[in-house]
Amino acid sequence: MNREHVSTGTEWESQVGYSRAVRAGPQIHVSGTTATDENGAIVGVDDPYEQTVHALSNVERALEDADAAIGDVVRTRLYVTDIDDWEAIGAAHREVFGDVRPATSMVEVARLIDPDLLVEVEATAVVDGADGSEHAGEQ
After folding, report:
1. Distances in Å between the alpha carbon of 97 and those of 9, 71, 72?
2. Is the pTM for the entire model greater than 0.85?
3. 8 A C-beta contact, residue 126 and residue 42
4. Given 51, 66, 76, 101, which residue has the most CB atoms within 10 angstroms?
5. Residue 54 burial (CB < 10 Å; 0-12/13-18/19+)?
6. Could you tell me the maximum CA-CA distance found in the chain, to the nearest angstrom?
7. From CA 39, how far away is CA 108, in angstroms rounded?
């Protein structure tokens, strides 16, 4: 089985020893992803909806780098610092995924790596072709 690492080149990847995403055969696993821009600045401070939208945009970019798409996602995990924000976070998730409707968990955690981060998202995608040439589901 081929294994491909997707990197954004952030300092944390080498410091912690992880990849933004790993593609192993038809599976793509996207690491915990937050609402940070290309300079590492947090987007949507104090806005769980905006943070979720931006984090999912970052997930989508990682999937594209691994020759997959949002429509290929079969599982998401949402780590949130305040479960009372579930409706705003859920609305953003629903808007991004539409009819894809991946299996999903939303779990409240005590904190994320920066106090301004409210949401972190993990995703797993599966593509039909081991080389990524066929997507399981286009949105």
Report:
1. 27, 7, 10
2. yes
3. no
4. 51
5. buried
6. 42
7. 27
Torsion of CA 35, 41, 44, 49, to 10 degrees: 0
Tens-of-pLDDT digits for all 139 residues of the chain? 789 999 888 888 889 999 999 999 999 999 999 999 988 899 999 999 999 999 999 999 999 999 999 999 999 999 999 999 999 999 999 999 999 999 999 999 999 999 999 999 999 999 986 554 444 444 4
Specify the DSSP class assigned to residue 89: H
What are the tokens at 72? 């290929």
